[in-house]
Design a protein that fits this description.
The structure is a single chain. The chain is mainly α and 148 residues long. 70% of the residues lie in helices and 0% in strands. α2 crosses α3 and α4 packs across α7. The longest helix is centred in the first third of the chain and has 23 residues.
């Protein structure tokens, strides 16, 4: 028999998965924590706390990472400008997009667009996505004893 707190925790995890899946599907749509929480039947504060506990980052950070990953793919294609890519992935501010892109990828989107064509030439798309996936700064600065 499942205890009440455990059953609630399982329901919350299912809701969090639905929120994460919605972000993955609708990353280009205007999404905010309040609307996501309301649709999940949770308060915004509860969603924010539980999402961070479950996935290790805020709802906003997760959304922006999905947007930047998609932007990277569009920039590698090379047929859209940085501004067009910014709006295509759901960002409404070119400045915020460029700042977040640079934080996650390590170079500005214009530099990435220019250099990415050469770095992934001849690679299957599935491999290119994996090797070019953004690494957050806190992950890149891990405490690997062999690197110290």
């Amino acid at each position: 028999m499942t205890s009440k707190p455990a059953a609630q925790s399982l329901r919350d995890l299912a809701r969090l998965r639905r929120v994460r899946d919605r972000i993955d599907r609708e990353y280009a749509q205007p999404l905010d924590v309040e609307a996501l929480a309301r649709d999940a039947g949770m308060s915004a504060g509860h969603l924010s706390r539980q999402f961070r506990l479950a996935y290790g980052e805020s709802v906003y950070a997760y959304l922006m990472t999905r947007r930047i990953e998609r932007a990277m793919a569009l920039l590698r294609r090379g047929d859209l400008s940085v501004t067009e890519v910014c709006f295509e992935v759901g960002c409404s501010s070119l400045g915020t997009f460029s700042t977040r892109f640079t934080e996650l990828v390590g170079v500005p989107p214009s530099v990435y667009r220019r250099e990415s064509a050469q770095s992934t030439a001849g690679m299957p798309a599935c491999v290119a996505r994996q090797v070019t996936r953004p690494i957050r700064n806190r992950e890149a600065q891990g405490n690997d004893p062999d690197l110290d």
